[in-house]
Amino acid sequence: MTASAQAPAPRRDWQRSVVYQIYPRSFCDSNGDGIGDLKGITSRLDHLQQLGVDVVWLSPVYSSPQDDNGYDISDYRAIAPEFGSMADFEEMLAAMHARGIRLMMDLVVNHSSDEHAWFQEARKSRDNPCHDYYIWREPGPDGAPPNNWEAAFQGSVWAWNEATGEYYLHMFSPRQPDLNWENPRVRQEVHALMRFWLDKGVDGFRMDVINMISKPWRADSSLPDAPAVREGFLQPGFALSCNGPRLLEFLAEMRREVLDHYDTITVGEAPMATTRQGVQITNPQSGALDMLFQFEHMDLDSQPGHPDGKWALKPLDLREFKATMSRWQDALAGQGWNSLYLSNHDQPRPVSRFGDDGAYRVASAKMLATCLHLLQGTPYVYQGEELGMTNVRFESIDDYRDIETLNRYRVAVHERGQDPAQVMAAIHAKSRDNARTPMHWSAGPNAGFTGGRPWIALNPNFHELNAEQALADPDSVFHYYRRLIALRHAHPVIVHGRYDLLLPGHTEIYAYTRSLAHEHLLVVCNFSAQTPRFALPPELQASERRLLIANYPVDAGEDLRSLSLRPYEARAYLLN
Ligand code: TEU
Ligand code: CA
Question: For 46-71, how does the pLDDT look when each residue is reduced to its tens digit (9 = 90+)?
Answer without folding.
Answer: 999 999 999 999 999 999 999 999 99
